[in-house]
Amino acid sequence: MIQRRSFRPIASSALFLAGALLVSGCVQFQPAMLYSGMEAAPVPERPRTLSLAAEPIIFDDQTDDTIWFQDDARCTQGEVTSDVVYAGQRAVAVSWNRNADGCEWAGFGIGWDGWAGKDLSELLPYAAIEMHVRSKEGTMYGLPIVLTFEDYSGGMGFAYTGNGYFERSVIDEDWQKVTVPLANFDNEIENLDITNVKQLMFELQGSGSIYMDEVKLIFYEEQEQEPWLVEEPRPDPTALPIQLFDDSFINDNGWGLVSDGCQTVELTDADPSTGSAALHLRWDLSPDLCYQGSMGVSWDKWYPIDMTEVVEQTAIQFDVRLTSGTSQSIPLRFGIEDYNRQFSGAKLDGSYTESGRFTSEWQTVTIPLVNLRGGGFQLAAAPATTGNVAEPQGRADWGNVKQLIIYMDEAGEVLLDNIRLVEIN
After folding, report:
1. CATH fold of 242-423, please?
2. What whole-number distance in Å separates Cα of residue 424 and Cα of residue 32?
3. Which residues pair with residue 134 across a beta bridge?
4. CATH code, residues 43-219
5. Is the pLDDT higher at 389 or at 40?
6. Which of 151, 204, 212, 397 allows an S-S link to 92, with CB 3.0 to 4.6 Å?
7. For a pLDDT cut of 90, what percent of the chain falls above it?
8. Based on C-alpha coordinates, what's the Rg of the chain?
9. What pTM was estimated for this model as a whole?
């Protein structure tokens, strides 16, 4: 078995560096200039081919002394094998247990290009290490390997092979690519001379058992990641008119469509004011367990809304009708709640309609926001009943608006439709 050419565990020099500084009592800080007068090193030009900068093949079937394995079988067992390969004639087979007694290090290395010193400086922004990996048996939910470049003075640069470099989410018994960009190596903490790289080492953490094949340098430039969840741009929440309900709540951000012993709020397609559906509200708060019927809607996806500039020219407007008869008022209150649960509202009175009363015909109600008043509605603490909430008290903060909210008092039945915020003179 071929012996490794050099050995310097990362843990002994890099990972303990911070601890050494903390326990030292004689650390001194020197004054530093904010500007040194030195310009940043220019980004090298992308070479036309990788081979013009460095030998790109790191492992491809070789069995010579450019590949070595740790000689402590308690920690690492490795070989070049023809039993299982991705391509060509041979692959690397390695099993390890860094947690075994006496194992301070586990791993192997490849001094590719005949152990020649390799200048990778031109490749840092443009290349990656690509390797094909599979498990010997079963599934591994990570690949605990620190890829480590070592130079001829003992300096090191390293990168951990996290799951983000995998072609798939796990390592299993099917071959897959693992691609680690050179730009992601930390070359500073161990003072790697990237112009004189001796070898690529594989420092093995934890335990595992894998095959590895076709290790090489490839051209690679980071692609801009497309976010997996893209939020659509939000329209201006003060640009009137804003439709809060018309067949459904805006952005599906309404609540209170429930049926329990105190209130029933549901959609109905029987004679809507507009569109194909209206809201049918029925409630009775006389039972002892019933405290307060309520429903509401946010029109900016539950973001706080600043309405201070538009409050004086804004009104709540909606269509309403009774199921039968006529009435001068309906035991409903419409209002605005802020994120401190302060409420400003107005009782639904016929004065907000053109006819001055409510009937079984659709009528339009317009309630200016300046007519909303805070306070005066607070009751005792609410029992825990489905769909009912304790009501806030006070005047809403127009710079921190949460939602339009509708409170149901006493008992009643009504249909609502075409709920919106509109501009008034």
Report:
1. Jelly Rolls (2.60.120)
2. 62
3. 211
4. 2.60.120.430
5. 40
6. 212
7. 74
8. 36
9. 0.49
